[in-house]
């Protein structure tokens, strides 16, 4: 099976278990006397198609998510122009090598611009989803996740994409090297009044924004974190708990799925496990940015010790990037109020 087929299957299992766990939360007492097979039959996964009420937002987000796989493929295949740049720098008077490096960097900058522009589309999609999932249509986040499963699925897909994009970016230093060379060369050409066709592709103002984007260790996650903070600040009439409760509920669901053998045994591949881990870390970081005291405080609705333990129980090589995301991209980890045990767990 292809990676895409694994991801689709993983999403189906993820949403199936969301439904299953929500049912357990709502009917815990009754469940103890209910045959497990009956629960599975009654709450088996359906394909989470959007309802009429969800459709407008779902279609807006779907147009963005359709391009997400292609973005990851392009990023994974990104090789950079390291050799051409090194030769040009080592031989500053060789015009042929300067031209070769410039010709090699130009198309790559076009790709980096495309990734940056996609981050803006992703932020807009996130705003649409948060608007739907935190509205006062339902009384609590559990009802939102249960009754708006198609949107919950899209939210999970966005988080999975975001963490995967940042994992690939962090392991590819060519991205910043290429863009830095492009900016230096463009500046030198401007000083020398040399026309630069590539400037029509990425002018100086846009180059500044793109440079700031890639300067961050986890640029997509920062985009979503800033976007979530902006959403909360622009919707002051909406109780902040509407947003934080949806995030903490999703984190709890992921944690339970990953730490409970009964639920985890339903995963057919490690890609499904990775999907759930990325979603869990993604919602924790968003929660930490928008909640007044963050995810690590004693009053947080997220069991941070439990979530970190779940991460540490995985093979180290598979989660180091996610642990680093918690270490270096959260807002409140180093607050004085953060439990010392949590800090030591992330050291």
What is the strand and helix layout of this fold?
Elements: H1 3-26, H2 28-31, H3 36-42, H4 52-76, H5 82-90, H6 95-133, H7 141-147, H8 149-170, H9 174-191, H10 198-201, H11 204-215, H12 219-234, H13 240-259, H14 261-264, H15 270-290, H16 304-312, H17 316-329, H18 340-345
Membrane topology: Lipid-anchor
Protein name: Family with sequence similarity 49 member Bb
GO cellular component, one term: membrane
Describe what you observe in this structure:
One of its GO terms (cellular component) is membrane. Keywords: Lipoprotein, Membrane. Mean pLDDT is 82; it is low at 20-46. The chain contains 18 helices and no strands. It is mostly helical. α6 (95-133) packs across α9, α8 (149-170) packs across α15 and α13 packs antiparallel against α15 (270-290).
Low-pLDDT ranges: 20-46
* General shape: globular
Overall number of strands? 0
Gyration radius (Cα, Å) is 22 Å
SSE order, as H and E?
HHHHHHHHHHHHHHHHHH
Helix content: over 70%
The proportion of strand residues reads: under 5%
Quaternary state reads single chain
Mean pLDDT: 82
Please state the structural category.
Answer: mainly alpha
How would you characterize the largest beta sheet?
none
- Termini separation (Å)? 38 Å
Number of helices: 18
Subcellular location: Membrane
GO molecular function: small GTPase binding
Keywords: Lipoprotein, Membrane
Membrane topology: Lipid-anchor
């Amino acid at each position: 099976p292809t990676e895409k087929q694994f991801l689709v299957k993983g999403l189906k299992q993820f949403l199936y278990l969301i439904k299953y766990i929500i049912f357990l939360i709502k009917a815990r007492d009754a469940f103890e006397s209910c045959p497990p097979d009956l629960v599975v039959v009654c709450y088996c996964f359906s394909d989470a198609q959007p309802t009429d009420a969800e459709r407008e937002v779902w279609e807006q987000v779907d147009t963005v998510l359709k391009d997400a796989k292609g973005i990851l493929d392009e990023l994974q295949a990104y090789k950079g122009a390291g050799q051409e740049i090194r030769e040009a720098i080592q031989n500053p008077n060789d015009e042929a090598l300067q031209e070769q490096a410039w010709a090699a960097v130009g198309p790559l900058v076009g790709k980096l611009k495309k990734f940056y522009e996609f981050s803006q589309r992703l932020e807009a999609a996130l705003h649409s989803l948060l608007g739907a999932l935190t509205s006062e249509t339902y009384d609590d986040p559990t009802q939102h996740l249960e009754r708006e499963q198609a949107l919950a699925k899209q939210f999970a897909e966005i988080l999975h994409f975001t963490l995967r994009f940042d994992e690939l970016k962090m392991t590819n230093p060519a991205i910043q090297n290429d863009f830095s060379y492009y900016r230096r060369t463009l500046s030198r050409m401007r000083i020398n009044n040399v026309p630069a066709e590539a400037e029509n592709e990425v002018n100086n103002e846009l180059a500044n924004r793109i440079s700031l984007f890639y300067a961050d260790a986890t640029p997509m996650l920062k985009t979503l974190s800033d976007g979530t903070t902006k959403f909360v600040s622009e919707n002051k009439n909406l109780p902040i708990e509407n947003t934080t409760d949806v995030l903490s509920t999703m984190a709890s669901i992921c944690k339970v799925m990953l730490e409970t053998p009964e639920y985890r045994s339903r995963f057919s591949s490690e890609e499904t496990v990775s999907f759930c881990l990325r979603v869990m870390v993604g919602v924790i970081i968003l929660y930490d940015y928008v909640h007044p005291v963050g995810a690590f405080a004693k009053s947080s609705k997220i069991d941070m010790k439990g979530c970190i333990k779940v991460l540490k129980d995985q093979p180290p090589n598979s989660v180091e990037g996610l642990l680093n995301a918690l270490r270096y991209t959260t807002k409140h980890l180093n607050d004085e109020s953060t439990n010392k045990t949590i800090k030591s767990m992330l050291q």
